[in-house]
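Lab manual, section 2.4: Encoding a predicted structure.

Procedure: take the sequence of the chain (321 residues), apply the prediction step described in section 2.3, and record the output as structure tokens. A sample record is shown.
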Amino acid sequence: MAADKVDVVTLRNGDRITCDIKKLDRSVLTISTDPLGTVTVHWGDIATLASPRQFDLQLASGEHYLGALTAAAPGQIDIALDTGGSLSFSMRDIVRLAPIGASMWSRMDGGIDAGFSFTQADLETHWTLNGSATYRSPRYLLSANLSSQVTIREDADSVKRNSLSLNGNRSFGNRWYTTGWTQLQQNQELSLDLRALGGGGIGRDVSHTDHRLFSLYAGLAYTHEQFSGEPSEQSAEAALGTQLDFFTPGHEDFQITNSVISYYALTGRSRFRLELQSTYRHEFYKDFYWSLNGFESLDSSPPQDTKSNDFGVSITLGWKF
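Recorded output:
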């Protein structure tokens, strides 16, 4: 934090900021300045960057380049390669940027949000809590996500829905990556006491630009399930998933994320499962945001007298870091 600020960011309105560039991700550049502390700037507001430090630069094509950033024309970034020579790129083609040797904390993003609702007619109270944390390096992406919904009614038992997932990706050339994930779930609305799952596979970012990410992956998973009043089950499943995210490169700070993963039983009873999570998040003041969240959980062949699907929508307020 006490290091000299040697990076220069020039904005489209002509302002010039001497700072310490932390990272570029999802069209938001994070910088550290002496008078303002750590701030974020939308990628669309930046004319050019310059720094004598070494950076890892990733293009929308999936290619990586290492080198220092040199002064360039507005809308362009020139990189002096550590192997010699230099290259010039349009800023619209750059999707990630991180200084080599950046601290672990500076590579992390996350947020936590909560919501509450109450209806007097049936004395129903609904609580929602969501949390996420992501760590990015030039080759690895690690993430953790927590989602919890609790519904309490005076004339009935409380209903809990809880999910904790951990994911890890290792990127290769041409936007290909390997992935591994594990998840713990509880959904009393579906009589699911516990589902423990672990899986792995391979995927590809079909499209990754300064405002969109579309990714597909496939693999295998092992699942252990315990439904209320039923014997535990174990099964092997084929998994097919997709991630479709939209984020702004301009002035408004919003994100739309959509995650869908489907499972097809390879052993045990014939069945199909689908898990969907969608979120619209809009920052309204500094690092504070409001979020509209939706989920769907579907099981084509649940135990007898058990619901086959559960869905819900919530509005929450949160803080990102």
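Check your result against the sample. The first strand starts at residue 7 and ends at 11.
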